[in-house]
Amino acid sequence: MQAYSYLIIDLLTILFPLLWSFEKKMYFFSKWSLAFKATTLVGLFFIVFDSLFTYLGVWGFTPRYLLGLNIFNLPIEEILFFTVVPFSCLFIYETVYFLWRDKIKNGLFYGLSLTVGLFLFFFGLANYNKLYTCFACVGASLVLAYHVARKKQINHEVFWVSYFIVLIPFTIVNGVLTGAVTDDPIVWYNNDENLGIRFFTIPIEDFAYNLMLLLLNVTLYERYLGRLYTKNSK
């Protein structure tokens, strides 16, 4: 059973969104093809960097928690991660849009994108000697900068509310992966390439990394749906 640990985490992550996709009002099932199209394309980008960082020793995986099947220098479970996690996040994003899009009116969320983007950019540059810190922070800042410059691409209000909700399951899943309930972490990190600051067992860089992952998936998902927003649109 231990060898199935990471795979079980992947399956549990996507189980509820898959089952609840058939809810009659939101009917997320009808958007599966667009969601998986977005997660596949964005996933390829992250898999390239994930494989490179694994090769460079930025992070790695404890073999006894894995099936032992590798593709592109990565465990198959890690490749599945870039489908199941973004898909589940898009389910949360779509739920927030469906339930609260007419209630979230605060234009400060657009300012939040600008503020967070600027902070992450300069913070990443200040830690240029930490590969993961620099990549996660600067990468997230550049995607935010794109959306600050092009206001009609996403609804900033819906995105940020979704992101804050996503942090709950994200903390649980990443906590398990980084050793919260296991003797050794399923995914380990080289602290020479990050700040060594943890939220419980999670490197703080993971929060910027997750921000970039979710935002890129939302960007493509919205483009495929053809829903363009201004910051105060419904």
Number of strands: 6
**Main sheet: strands, sense, barrel:** 2 strands, antiparallel
Count of helical regions: 7
C-alpha termini separation: 47 Å
Share in helix: 55-70%
Residue stretches low in confidence (pLDDT < 50, at least 5 long) are 230-234
Provide mean pLDDT, rounded. 90
Q: β content, as a range?
A: 5-15%
Secondary-structure-derived class: mainly alpha
Question: How are helices and strands ordered from N to C?
Answer: HHEEEHHHHEEEH
What does this structure look like?
This protein is mainly alpha-helical. The strands form 3 sheets. It has a two-stranded antiparallel ribbon. It contains 7 helices and 6 strands, in the order ααβββααααβββα. Helices cover 63% and strands 6% of the residues. α3 packs across α7. It is globular and about 45 Å long.
Q: What topology emerges from the helices and strands here?
A:
Layout: H1 5-20, H2 32-56, E1 59-61, E2 70-71, E3 74-75, H3 76-100, H4 108-126, H5 131-149, H6 156-177, E4 187-189, E5 198-199, E6 202-203, H7 205-225
Antiparallel strand pairs: 1-4, 2-3, 5-6
Helix pairs in contact: 1-3, 2-3, 2-7, 3-6, 3-7, 4-5, 5-7, 6-7
